[in-house]
Amino acid sequence: MNIIRRHASPLSTYRPASMDDSFGRMVENMFEDFLAPGSPYSALSRQGADDIASPRLTVTENDKSFEVEAEMPGVKKEDIKVAVENQRVSIEGEAKRESAQKEGESIVYAERITRHFARSFTLPSEVDESAAQARLENGILMLSLPKKRATEAKKLTVQ
């Protein structure tokens, strides 16, 4: 399981301050969901809605961190990618069907297929990517995402 750490985009400095309020986050999330994999409006939907699933999430928050649980049934930890960038979390995975077909046999009917999972979401505050942890247990991906400490303003002496 890989945690990919990314740095802020150079364009993030041009992000309007209004996008930091709750309404701005709501609008941003609406567009992210609108264009998410599996959405009928996504370019990826041309591959078929069954090809990409969006894992169900539970996100909880305490004073120090965000805890995320995502359903990833049939996915091995080697086939999961988690990316954390500031407030943005992206999860991708693939449940691969292993062929048990023996010589001389042919598959008549198969409902178990390779399944792709993808989900991205934005948290209310920034995450300390260097301390983020991920583990997979019984088909549930668990992320522990510590919050970044608020930095105090530097006080200057007027000369």
Outline the structure in words.
With 159 residues, the protein is mainly β. It has a single domain, classed as Sandwich (Immunoglobulin-like), CATH 2.60.40. It contains one helix and nine strands. The strands form two sheets. The protein has a five-stranded mixed β-sheet. A hairpin with a 2-residue loop joins strand 5 and strand 6. The radius of gyration is 20 Å and the shape is elongated. About 8% of the residues have low confidence.
**Roughly what is the average pLDDT, rounded to an integer?**
77
Rounded to an integer in angstroms, the radius of gyration calculated over CA atoms is: 20 Å
Largest sheet: 5 strands, mixed
Number of strands: 9
CATH architecture label: Sandwich
Gross geometry: elongated
Helix and strand succession?
EHEEEEEEEE
Major sheet strand order: 1-5-6-7-2
What is the straight-line distance between the termini? 53 Å
Remind me, CATH topology?
Answer: Immunoglobulin-like
- Please indicate the count of domains: 1
Number of helices: 1
Structural class: mainly beta
**What are the segments in which pLDDT stays under 50 over at least 5 consecutive residues?**
9-14, 43-49
Approximate strand percentage: 25-35%
Assign a percent range to the helix content: under 10%
Q: Please write the CATH class name.
A: Mainly Beta
